[in-house]
Amino acid sequence: MKLAFQKNAQNLFSQVTFLMVLGLMATSCNKETEEPQDVLTEEEIVAVVEGAMLADTDGLAAQSEDAVYIAEQYTVKDGLGGGPCGETMDSTVSYNYTDPRITASYNSTFIWTLNCNNNSIPQSLDFDRTAEGNYETARMISDDSAVGDWLVENIVTGANYVINGSYSREGSQTSKVRNQNAFTSSLQVSLDDLNLDKGTRRIVSGIASFTLNGSGTAGRSFSYEGDLVFNGNGSVTIIVNGHSHTIDLY
Length: 250
What we know:
Helices cover 24% and strands 48% of the residues. It is α+β, with helices and mostly antiparallel strands. The chain has one domain. A ten-stranded antiparallel sheet has the order 1-2-3-4-5-6-7-8-9-10. A hairpin with a 2-residue loop joins strand 9 and strand 10.
């Protein structure tokens, strides 16, 4: 009888242990199922930031070039009315671009005010730009608007113009890669000493931080952060999730 009791106890212990293991496995599977997945892939995040940077999508590279072009006119005698210190001026342009890689169409408005010293010598330019339109690249279709709020310095001194301020771009996008996700996004960029060569008007250095917020399929929201490093060879490195992606701006 004692032996039979030991066998029954062992069987009961084995059954309880087996049930506990099954329970742990089920709990583990549920946790894995419940863990939220990223709404956007890293490739899609990079594509959104890329679209906001490129010159051919009327991105930051093009808009910063326009800003320093305006500033440049005040270094030339009689440029833009002879340097009206303290006056606010504006201009509107339309932009269309088509090649095998990119198509884009935007309408932009510039508003600027020239800041001078007591001798009426230009010192800096308050430059605001708004743009609205759409673009399509190999990786993304976007219908969006952009706002730049910048201070352009070093107008008459130094080898480079220097821009500080903020840049934002928001709208709706459809990815052309992976799952072809459709989503809305708002990209906020904070610029830190963006340097543009006074000869080429192209970005040669500078850094920035960005946040990308929005919502995707079934209203799932997302928020990502990253950094930008503008290189001296006409490119920018997008850093997100600890990974670096370098793209050509021009």
